[in-house]
Write a structure and sequence with these properties.
Strand content of chain B: under 5%
Distance between the termini of chain A: 38 Å
Strand content of chain A: 15-25%
Helix content of chain B: over 70%
Largest sheet of chain A: 8 strands, mixed
Strand order of the largest sheet of chain A: 6-7-8-3-9-10-12-11
Order of helices and strands of chain A: EEEHEEHEHHHHHEHEHEEHHEEH
Radius of gyration of chain B: 24 Å
Structural class of chain B: mainly alpha
Order of helices and strands of chain B: HHHHHHHHHHHHHH
Mean pLDDT of chain A: 89
Shape of chain B: globular
CATH superfamily of one domain in chain B: MetI-like
Number of strands of chain B: 0
Number of helices of chain A: 12
Largest interface: A-B, 29 and 22 residues
Low-confidence stretches of chain A: none
Structural class of chain A: alpha/beta
Oligomer: heterodimer
Chain lengths: 336, 322
């Protein structure tokens, strides 16, 4: 088995606040293999963005108490001093964000902003950087890239801005691209284009991708593996097919139940997961999901479930006996 | 853009006309005495007052007087263009007096502006980058002091300490650089600059701090860091660029207002500037002097507004005027 490109071991990110310790990420482990796409799924506040902002070194020990290891190409990034970490950011690992409307600086031309990323890591002239930026804009499918590079972000549509962000992120040919909810702020038709683009560029640039999302339906077909996060922990992990067709955790069932399907007649209303994500200061004891779980029983309120293997790479953290899980999934979830 | 500027310039004219008309009316409604009587000398005779009135043009109906005044502004008077009239008290041409005074006020205002920018902005930046640090608390304490200390208090206190007690700096008055050399000029202006700049420096420090802290939380700052830029570049090129742009607006308006005369500072330090002159003219009922100072002050404010808006369009590409 090849070495993983990124290996996160028991990562904890806790923010001290006036109200108490916010356990945004509470002991997660995951790995990203070279060339694969990993999907990280969860609601707002489940810790998915915080985990990868920490990997990027954008959340540091100045703001949070960080424990664990982030091994990238054999080096623990948590031990890298901040001023060296900036040579990893953008060059080896880069990141695009949820809202392309606000992620580009409104006062600088798009080409200059992409070029700035290149110049941050390579000794090239402004002109060369701009030319490279134009080429990148073309590769991400922006028509008339030379004209567009001389425009400001407000002259771009949302989808075009996200393409520009992707161009910026890939301009130094990084090993890993982290896409934090890359399609959430976009129109549905544009969402598909952006995800297809990311797929295509993964092959072209031979990079690994992490897609962070709350929308299981959107990313499932673009990912090799999926991690489902809830309240700072990973509650289920496996191949995309495992999670999509054979999920073992009631939270994953809930996520599937919340997907809108347009390809078949709607038999019933969407089934939202009841309740709200828990406070990360007062995380419920036992399984954090138990207050919202329709199948919870006594043990769930006391014992924290461990992430136990189901088969192969598929693992889930739930106390429900296997037989019950299969029965409930077959009768109540898959039947819908 | 050009059309926009022309339209705005026309509005500047309209604003100035309205302001002068109001000043004119206030002048004739407010004072208890007739200016002609003031200037006719002691124990004036009826004939003398009438003669003075005729000489000053005060015998004509109010609106005709105002019309003549406006006409002179645009077309010039016996002293040339622009027709700023003559002073009732000295019966001499106002233009050279006004321009001399304006020159003093400009030196006071620009020096103070340079000082408050040099002090206020760096303090604001350092405070924003280390919020709640000791420096930040100290700086914001200073800002509170600066904003809440009036010039008429701080001015005399500084004069007492640095001139009267310590003798480090010369006293009041304005010493033109051409006549007295750099040091005389400079040393006499240090205290007025400082006193005038303090409140502004405090305000600008707070503004810079607030704006920069807000900007550093923006998504595009996170993007800049994610690109791997150095923290220095993130702050200076991405953060400050956005944070300081609104300050340009404020600076334009502040400077515009100050060029009309910093009345209290000029009075405390006995600087013969426009503000000082405005006060004198009001007390002596010198109609055209009051009107001239009002016009100049109003012109600077309205014109500064226009300049700010035009400059803003260059600083923020999202702003376009049609």
């Amino acid at each position: 088995m090849p070495e993983p490109l990124l290996q996160v071991n028991d990562l904890k990110v806790h923010f001290p606040t006036d109200d108490g310790l916010v356990k945004a990420v509470d002991g997660i482990s995951l790995q990203v293999m070279p060339g694969e796409t990993l999907g990280v799924v969860g609601e707002s506040g489940s810790g998915k963005s915080v985990s990868f902002l920490t990997v990027m070194g954008l959340i540091t020990s100045k703001q949070a108490i960080i424990e664990g290891e982030v091994i990238f190409k054999g080096q623990d990034l948590l031990q890298v001093p901040p001023d060296e970490m900036r040579h990893v950011r953008g060059e080896k690992i880069s990141m695009i964000f949820q809202d392309p409307m606000t992620s580009l600086h409104p006062f600088y031309k798009v080409g200059a902003q992409v070029g700035e990323a290149i110049r941050a890591h390579q000794k090239v002239s402004k002109k060369e950087a701009f030319d490279q930026a134009v080429e990148m804009l073309q590769r991400v499918g922006i028509p008339k890239p030379e004209e567009r590079a001389a425009q400001y972000p407000h002259e771009f549509s949302g989808g075009m801005r996200q393409r520009a962000m992707i161009a910026m992120a890939l301009s130094l040919n990084p090993d890993l691209l982290i896409a934090d909810e890359p399609t959430t702020a976009l129109d549905v038709t544009v969402q598909a284009q952006i995800l297809d683009l990311i797929d295509r560029l993964r092959e072209e640039f031979n990079a690994s991708i992490v897609i962070i999302t709350h929308d299981l339906g959107v990313v499932a077909e673009h990912c090799d593996h999926l991690q489902v996060m809830y309240a700072g922990k990973i509650v289920e992990t496996g191949t995309a097919d495992d999670i999509y067709y054979r999920p073992h955790h009631p939270y994953a069932w809930g996520l599937l139940g919340s997907i809108t399907r347009l390809d078949e007649a709607q038999k019933e209303r969407l089934r939202p997961i009841k309740g709200l994500p828990p406070s990360l200061i007062f995380v419920p004891p036992g399984c954090a999901f138990h207050p919202r779980c329709p199948y919870a029983f006594d043990k769930c309120k006391v014992d924290v479930p461990e992430l136990l293997p189901v088969d192969g790479q598929h693992a889930a953290a739930c106390h429900l006996p296997l037989a019950d899980k299969q029965r409930i999934f077959a009768e109540e979830v898959a039947a819908r | 853009m050009i059309r926009y500027i022309i339209r705005r310039l026309l509005w500047v004219m309209v604003t100035l006309l309205v302001i002068t008309l109001l000043t004119y009316l206030i002048f004739f409604v407010m004072p208890p005495t007739d200016p002609a009587i003031n200037f006719a000398g002691k124990q004036p005779t009826e004939e003398l007052v009438a003669e003075v009135k005729a000489q000053f043009g005060l015998d004509k109906p109010l609106l005709v007087q105002y019309g003549l005044f406006v006409k002179r502004i645009f077309l010039g008077d016996e002293y040339g263009w622009p027709g700023l009239g003559f002073s009732f008290s000295t019966r001499s041409e106002l233009k050279p007096i006004i321009f001399d005074r304006l020159l003093v006020t400009i030196q006071l205002a620009l020096g103070a502006a340079i000082l408050w920018l040099m002090v206020g902005i760096p303090i604001g930046i350092l405070s924003a980058l280390r919020p709640r640090s000791i420096f930040d608390r100290f700086a914001m304490g200073f800002a509170l002091f600066g904003v809440s200390t009036p010039v008429f208090f701080l001015g005399p206190v500084m004069l007492y300490i640095f001139w009267f007690q310590l003798g480090w700096l010369p006293g009041t008055g304005f010493y033109p650089i051409g006549q007295y050399g750099f040091w005389e000029w400079f040393s006499h202006l240090i205290m007025p600059w400082t006193v005038l700049a303090l409140a502004f420096a405090a305000f600008y420090a707070r503004m810079t701090r607030g704006n920069l802290m807000e900007t550093m939380g923006e998504d595009y700052i996170r993007t800049a860091r994610a690109k791997g830029l150095s923290e220095r570049r993130v702050v200076l090129r991405h953060g400050l660029r956005s944070a300081l742009t609104p300050l340009v607006t404020i600076l334009g308006l502040d400077l515009g207002a100050l060029l009309g005369g910093a009345i209290i500072t000029e009075t405390v330090f006995n600087l013969q500037g426009l503000g000082n002159y405005a006060i004198q003219s009001v007390f002596s009922g010198d109609l055209y002097a009051i009107l001239d100072v009002t016009i100049i002050a109003a012109f600077f404010i309205t014109f500064a507004n226009l300049i700010v808006d035009v400059v803003y369009a260059f600083l923020d590409p999202r702003v376009r005027y049609t």
